[in-house]
Design brief:
heterodimer, A: two-stranded antiparallel sheet, about 15% strand, B: about 400 residues, alpha/beta, Rossmann fold, 3 domains, five-stranded parallel beta sheet, two-stranded antiparallel ribbon
């Protein structure tokens, strides 16, 4: 392996995750990443792209996204309109075929990183519709008779929040990694990457409070990595005395996003 | 290579396919395990296991298969020779109480760290001491040692280091057959959907095919067509047992209720509560207040037969509550609880019973009603797996 991923300046990854990324790249299979919200699934692709110095193409999946959208879109309505007014180039179907994100990644001259973000948002059939394309890295456009074949196999990173089960046939083709919630030691590293200078006492208090809140059984939506970073930002910006952090949990609204969780914190915090 | 491991994994319920196995072989060929045992473990897991719910099963199988593999990596042959001293096995002369207590307090990580340091420093044979790697000493490593805790080096096998990873089995909570939180319930509930374009909604979706067809019919002048959006047509009636023996499962039931509420993709949703078994009234709140009562007959009359019904209850009650006519008034059409349940069965073809409790086997009394209901309904345990199986049943009714 000439190029492997070792984390980047602003992304701290566990040893296992680094290994999973390198396995996926060596086996040329998509890497499927699952994990709690806010554990940095999406950021991982950005970190890989900057560490390997490759372009990143992001395909954000929504509930309405269809597999076809990622390959190409044949703008039939535009063509219909153009034909009504006798515009030029109506005969040229190529003009109305626009490549989607996957097509873009295939046709790129250099190897790119393709992030398929939150694949579980789409319909149940969505992953199955992409099996062939991700396996062979090619697809056919019947309208123009053209076959798009990947110039350089892109590195495919897929994230999922496990809102839906993914089909077995799809899973078989992936390398899987589950991002665990970072323990205190790793979290300290992660936080340090995001802040240049940190008051040690403040950091210690914040981490203690953070893991204590996460352990409260009454909290429904547990705060995660992105929340602790926002919280530290808020505490530093507000110039809060570090000794107050554990006692009062200032700016709790940054950590907890639900009113019932804030209420639970107020009642159960000691 | 270790083909038996593939079959062991499969027999443990992991759906490892040949594709994945070949991928693992390819990866080993390319040296992706980096010639280390923990690297091998992570490689196997990344390639073969595709859900955190299966991590625990994998850990169990991995532990079972590789338990007796001798692990000699990072230990020099010279050291192994020093340690090969079967003659000292029963020598207790070097026992020291104080060091023993100190060693008891060390965690495995600390011991491991110390071992790594010693391995880097040690350049001669040490036996009977309390610091270096050696035999019959008080240090935490070596073999035939007297320390109450430590890592065995040499002798027969040294596998602990590798097994700290798999041995912790920290993914136990993710197992699919555990009863879990709302999110996973929600995932299971998502499968309960039947899409149809035949819903009574205004046509708002652009219909490409219809537009093209009608435009052609219209001699090429554009005629735009819209169609009705496809929508979930599933209507769900949830009936939950509340109070009494169900209090033990309050948290689980509340998780299920929230998941159903949040799912939000049902065409219609009604939730009623009852105690032990529905009789003449069901209730709109779990407190079963008289003001919240709704006649059960009203539910049967007004919710049509295409509703899908889920009962949630432990099915354990005094037998007369289910079979006796204790609560019945003279003019009641339904004499006992079971009659009401049968009325639900006649009205609704898609019906399941979710049970948070397993069959009580410590006495005949409570299992009586359990068995009657188990026989009459398709009963599933209230776990993620059970709910998923139940949803399939509700959809297919096979």
């Amino acid at each position: 392996m000439d190029r492997s991923f070792h984390g980047s300046a602003n992304y701290v990854a566990s040893e296992e995750l680094l290994q999973a990324v390198n396995i996926a790249m060596a086996l040329r299979k998509p890497l499927l990443i699952k994990g709690e919200p806010g554990t940095g699934k999406t950021v991982l692709a950005q970190a890989i792209s900057s560490a390997l110095n490759k372009k990143l193409i992001i395909w954000n999946i929504k509930s309405t996204t269809k597999a076809q959208d990622g390959l190409y879109v044949y703008d039939v309505v535009q063509r219909l309109y153009d034909s009504q007014f006798g515009n030029e180039g109506v005969d040229n179907i190529e003009k109305y075929v626009r490549l989607g994100k996957l097509g873009e990644a295939f046709t790129a001259d250099e190897q790119v990183i393709l992030l398929i973000d939150e694949i579980d948002k789409a319909d149940l059939e969505f992953p199955n519709d992409l099996l062939w394309e991700l396996d062979r890295m090619e697809f056919h456009i019947p309208e123009t008779g053209r076959t798009v074949i990947a110039v350089q196999r892109p590195v495919v990173i897929i994230t999922s929040n496990a809102e839906k089960e993914l089909p077995d046939a799809f899973l078989r083709r992936c390398v899987f990694h589950y991002i665990e919630f970072p323990d205190r030691e790793l979290m300290e590293q992660i936080v340090r990457v995001h802040f240049d200078k940190l008051d040690e006492h403040l950091l210690d208090q914040v981490l203690t409070a953070f893991y204590k809140i996460r352990q409260l059984p009454q909290i429904k939506k547990k705060p995660s990595t992105s929340e602790i970073i926002d919280w530290l930002q808020a505490l530093i910006h507000g110039g809060v005395n570090a000794d107050r952090v554990l006692q009062e949990i200032p700016y709790a609204g940054v950590l907890l996003k639900k009113t019932e969780d804030l209420e639970a914190l107020r009642r159960n915090w000691r | 290579m270790f083909r038996d491991f593939l079959y062991l994994l499969r027999s443990r319920g992991l759906k490892v396919s040949l594709t994945e196995w070949m991928a693992l072989m390819e990866a080993l060929d390319k040296g992706l395990h980096k010639s280390s045992f923990s690297g091998f473990y992570h490689l196997c897991r990344a390639v073969l296991v595709k859900s955190e719910a299966d991590f625990d099963k994998f850990d169990g199988a991995f532990l079972e298969y590789f338990r007796d593999v001798p692990f000699q990596q990072e230990i020099s042959q010279e050291l192994m020779d020093w340690l090969d001293r079967p003659d000292v096995l029963t020598d207790w002369a070097n026992y020291d109480e104080e060091t023993a207590l100190k060693n008891m307090g060390l965690s495995e990580q600390e011991i491991e760290q110390m071992l790594l340091e010693r391995l880097a420093q040690q350049d001669e044979e040490h036996n009977g001491g309390r610091y270096w790697v050696g035999t019959h000493g008080m240090s935490v490593f070596g073999n035939a040692g007297l320390s109450p805790k430590g890592i065995r080096v040499g002798g027969q096998s040294m596998h602990r280091r590798a097994f700290r990873v798999a041995g912790e089995r920290k993914y136990r909570d993710f197992r699919g057959d555990n009863a879990l939180d709302t999110r996973q319930f929600q995932v299971a509930l998502r499968t309960l959907r039947q899409f149809s374009g035949l819903v009574d909604r205004p046509p708002t979706e652009f219909d490409v095919d219809g537009t093209i067809r009608d435009t052609c019919d219209n001699a090429g002048t554009l005629k735009v067509r819209y169609k009705r959006p496809r929508e979930n047509t599933v209507k769900l009636l949830l009936l939950m047992d509340s109070g009494g023996s169900m209090d033990y499962y309050a948290r689980l039931c509340s998780a299920l209720f929230q998941a159903v509420e949040k799912a939000g993709h049902f065409k219609d949703l009604k939730v009623y509560y009852f105690h032990n078994c529905p009789h003449g009234n069901v209730y709109t709140s779990p407190h079963l207040l008289r003001t919240d009562a709704v006649p059960t007959q009203w539910v049967l009359d007004n919710l049509s037969g295409d509703w899908k019904v889920i009962f949630v209850g432990d099915a354990q009650m005094a037998p007369h509550e289910l079979m006796g006519d204790f609560y019945a008034r003279r003019d009641d059409r339904y004499r006992c609880g079971m009659d009401w349940l049968r009325a639900f069965q006649q009205r609704y073809s898609h019906i399941i019973w979710l049970n948070p409790s397993s069959r009580p086997d410590w006495g005949g009394y409570w299992s009586q009603t359990y068995d009657v209901i188990d026989k009459a309904f398709d009963m599933f345990p209230l776990t993620v797996d059970g709910l998923t199986a139940g949803m399939k049943k509700l959809l297919s009714n096979k």
